[in-house]
Structure formats: C-alpha cells, structure tokens
C-alpha cells in the first residue's frame, strides 16, 4: 500500500529493489497510469552496477563484501567508489539518464530490523517531467513509512532508547 500510494501521488512508476548477490531485482512494482511512462522491471534481474538502485544498495554493503564486488576496476566500480560516502550518508541516489537515456531514476534505501538496509524504493520518471524537488520529499516519507513497517527504528527514537538503556 505504501508503494501504491506513492505511485498514485506522484503519477510515476514505483518499484521495490532488492540486492541478491551482485544483481538487483524488483519483486514489486506499481506502473504509472500516464500514457508516457517508464515500464516497471518486475521479475527482471539487472547487474547492480548497471542500475541506480543497485549502485545505491551496493554502496551500503559491509567493506569486505564491497571490496570483493568492486574489485573489477570497471567504470561502474569507479563510479560507486567515488560516490560511496555520499551514497552511504544520504541513503539516496538521483540518476539522470546515465543508464537509460531520457529516464531519471530516484532511489532511497529502506531499512528493516536493526536499521539494516533491506532494499530501496526506486521511482522511474521520463526526464522531461522529472520534478526532483517535488518527488524527493514524498519518496523520503514513503521510505520512512516502509522502513518503520519493516521494523526499523525512527531516527529520534533510537537516541532516546539508547539513553534509557544506558541510564
């Protein structure tokens, strides 16, 4: 329901992306009802390095796994390495036509128990109508709601709970 609501609100294709080994998969997608749209990628596996959601999720991996995956020195490996700190700190990526011409991919991580990254929400928008400043707050809200539903702690709640257990 969270992804469906987001798709209806922004009028674009919204997918859940998960990382399986070095592939990004899309177990769930809500297709835009607009006549011009980006088709969803349900039941498709794409190399994680070749997709914005995959690059975002790859950047969240522990150092040892990340080093193994980025050992190839390809342009994609270099791109992930150069964006690593930003991808980890922001938890989002905006990809403007880098992988698919005329398509903007906007992704944000989704967390589960122990605040571990479990996937990402990906929004696909034709480049000519990508209003990033309108989409980002709605994406952030949906990712937060989905994370909470999957057992992640809210930001302010973590520090207050830590104080209670420490005191």
Q: What does this protein structure show overall?
A:
The structure is a single chain. By secondary structure, the chain is α+β, with helices and mostly antiparallel strands. Helices cover 42% and strands 26% of the residues. It is built from six helices and six strands; from the N terminus they run H-E-E-E-H-H-H-E-E-E-H-H. Strands 3-2-1-6-5-4 form a six-stranded antiparallel beta sheet, with helices on both faces.
Order of helices and strands: HEEEHHHEEEHH
Q: Give the integer mean of the pLDDT values.
A: 87
Oligomer designation: single chain
Percent of residues in helical segments? 40-55%
Distance between the termini: 39 Å
Overall form: globular
Number of helical stretches of at least 4 residues = 6
Query: β content, as a range?
Result: 25-35%
Helix/sheet category: alpha+beta
What Rg is obtained from the alpha carbons, in whole angstroms? 16 Å
User: Which sequence of strands runs across the widest sheet?
Assistant: 3-2-1-6-5-4
In short:
The protein has 167 residues and is of the alpha+beta class. Helix content is 42%, strand content 26%. The protein contains 6 helices and 6 strands.
Task: Show the helix and strand layout.
Elements (H helix, E strand, L loop, with lengths): L1 H9 L2 E8 L2 E8 L14 E3 L4 H8 L3 H7 L5 H16 L1 E5 L6 E9 L5 E10 L5 H18 L5 H12 L1
Antiparallel strand pairs: 1-2, 1-6, 2-3, 4-5, 5-6
